[in-house]
C-alpha cells in the first residue's frame, strides 16, 4: 500500500483570472454534457424539428394553398409557410431550452446537489459561477440551434443565407429570457413549483401567440401589447426578417436593444442572487 | 514578509444572521501542522465559524486572518490554498468518481496533466481506485465521504477544513475515515475539524476548543481538558427512570461531583471501583453499573450542564 499524500509546504492551487474562471465553470458543465448529451437531444433538437415538419409541411400545405391563394399573404413575402415558421421555431426552441436549463439545474446546484457550494469553496467566485453557468446555457442553445438549422436547411425550410443570422438572434433571445429566470431560480427556496407555472403560463402561450405561427396582427388589438412585451416576439420578428425579407436598421436596433436590456438586467440580478445565496 | 506561524488567527470573531448571533466573539489560533478541533453540540456556532475561515461567509465583527491574509480582501487567494470538506457532501452525482476529481482540480487553475496524475494518487489514498469510473450516485455514504476528502486534497492544501467529517456514517466507515485523516495528519497536513462526537475529537485532535452557544467555553488538549474539568474516572449508575433520585444524597457523599441524567447518575471520582464498592455496601441497587475513564463528553457536561448529543 503506497497511498501517501505528502506534506504540502506550499499549496499548488492558483487563482484563475475572471475569464479563465468562467471558462473553467463551462468546462465542468461540459464534462457533464459529454456524459449525458444523448438524453438532452430529444428536447433540444428533435422536438423543434417535429414541430417544423408537422406545422410547416403538414399544416403549411393548407396555408400555402389556402383561401387567398398561395404566396399572396403579404407576411409570407413569397416564402412558403415552412420557411415562414422555420426561423421562428428556431428562436422559440432556443428560448424553451434555455428556460429549462436556467431553472431546475440552477436550483439543483443550490438545493439538491449543492455542487455550487463545492465550486465556490475553490478560488472560483459566485459571480464567476453565475457567468459560467449562463455562458454554458448560451453555448448549449447555440449548438442545438445550429443542428436544427442544418436539418431545416436539408428540408428546404431555410429561405436563404440570412438564416445564419437568425442563430445569434435565437441565442440572444433565449438568454434574454433565461438570465432573469436563472436569477429567479437562484432565489427559489421551494421545490421549483414556480418553474412549471412559468413554463405553462408564460413560455407556452408566448410560443403560441407571440408570432411564431402567425403574425401578431391577427390577435385582437387589445391583446397585441401582451405579445409585444415578450422577448420572444422581438427575437422572432428579427430572426424571421433576417431570414426572409431583411429588417429595417432602426427596427433591428430596437429589437436588439430591447433584448439586450432583458439580458443585462438578468445577468446583473443573477450575479447578485448567486453571491447572496452562496456567501451568507 | 514575516512568516506567521498561525494558519488561522481569530480575535473577537462574530457572526450574526439578522438578530441571531451564531458566533459571539471567539478567539482561536491554529498552528501549522496541528490537528485542531471545534467540539460542541449542534447550534454551537462551529459551522458558522468554519464557513468564515473557509472564506465563504463574511464575518460580522472581529479580526480574522487565514494563512496570514484577510478573507474579506483575499478570499479567492486564500481559498486556492485551502481544502474544504463540507458537512453535507456536495459531489457531482452524475459524474464519475474520477471526473469529480478532475473537474474540481481544474477550478484551482491546475493544468490537466497535473490534475490527472493527482487524481490517481488521491483515488488510491481514498481507496476508490476500483470505483474510479463509476458514477457517484450509487456509492455508499462512506465512499462519498472519502471522495469528498480526496477532492479537498486536489490542490495540496496547506490547511484542511473538515466540518463534521463522520456524521451519519456507520462505525466501520468512521474508523476507515479516521485512519485516512490520521495519515494526513502524520504527513503534516494541518487539520481543522468540527465535531459533536467526543471520540472523534479525542482520536484526531491535538488541541481543541469546546464551543457552546456561540462561545468558546474551554480550550486545551483532550488530556488537559479532561484533567482540569473532570476526574480521572467516572462511575455510572443506571436506574429505572425516576429511580435515581433516592440515591443522589449518597452519591454526593461518595464523589467529588455528581451529574444527574434522566436515567443515570454520573459519579466523578479518582477511583471508580472504590466508589462502586461503597455504593453497594450502602445497599443502593442500580440496574447496571459501569466504571470508565472520563471523556470529553464529561468535560462538556461539566462546562455546560448538557450532553453533546441530544
Model description:
With 280 residues, chain A is mainly α. Chain A has a domain at 87-141 and 159-278. In chain A, 72% of the residues lie in helices and 0% in strands. Chain A has ten helices and no strands. In chain A, α3 runs antiparallel to α9 and α5 (126-154) runs antiparallel to α6. Chain A is elongated, with a radius of gyration of 21 Å. The mean pLDDT of chain A is 90. Helix content of chain B is 36%, strand content 27%. Chain B starts with 5 loop residues before the first strand and ends in a 6-residue tail after the last helix. A six-stranded mixed sheet of chain B has the order 5-6-7-3-8-9, sandwiched between helices. The mean pLDDT of chain B is 92. In chain B, α3 packs across α4 (112-125), α5 runs parallel beside α6 and α8 (222-229) packs across α11. With 310 residues, chain B is of the alpha/beta class. Chain B has two domains: 6-220, P-loop containing nucleotide triphosphate hydrolases (Rossmann fold), CATH 3.40.50.300; 231-293, Alpha-Beta Plaits, CATH 3.30.70. At the A-B interface, α1 and α4 of A face α2, α3 and α4 of B.
Kindly report the average pLDDT value of chain A.
90
The CATH homologous superfamily of the largest domain in chain B: P-loop containing nucleotide triphosphate hydrolases
The proportion of residues forming helix of chain B, as a percent range, comes to 25-40%
Q: How many runs of DSSP E, i.e. beta strands of chain B? A: 13
Mean pLDDT of chain B: 92
What value does the Rg of chain B take, in angstroms? 22 Å
Query: Oligomerization state of this entry?
Result: heterodimer
In total, the number of strands of chain A is 0
CATH top level of the largest domain in chain B is Alpha Beta
Distance between the termini of chain A: 42 Å
Largest interface: A-B, 39 and 48 residues
Low-confidence stretches of chain A: none
Structural class of the helix and strand makeup of chain B? Answer: alpha/beta
Strand content of chain A: under 5%
Gross geometry of chain A: elongated
Membrane topology (chain B): Peripheral membrane protein
GO molecular function (chain B): ATP binding; ATP hydrolysis activity
Keywords (chain B): Antibiotic resistance, ATP-binding, Cell membrane, Membrane, Nucleotide-binding, Translocase, Transport
Family (chain B): Belongs to the ABC transporter superfamily.
